[in-house]
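lol forgot to send this yesterday, sorry. struct tokens for the thing we talked abt
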């Protein structure tokens, strides 16, 4: 366990560089890109928008 916030940040950066974070990334069902933003939809629901192609889904 890190003793400081800087240690925590270093651990997160190491995990990202090793690819440990990529297994759970959302992918656009239209183009396959992992550049996906989560947005609030109508009536408080959750929707997703691909920032690469513009496709949206919920």
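and heres what i got for the seq, position by position
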């Amino acid at each position: 366990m890190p003793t400081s916030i800087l240690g925590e940040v270093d651990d997160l950066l190491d995990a990202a560089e090793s690819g440990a974070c990529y297994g759970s990334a959302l992918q656009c069902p239209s183009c396959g890109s992992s550049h996906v933003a989560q947005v609030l939809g109508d009536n408080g629901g959750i929707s997703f928008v691909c920032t690469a192609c513009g496709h949206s889904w919920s």
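The chain has one domain: 5-57. anyway ping me if u want another try
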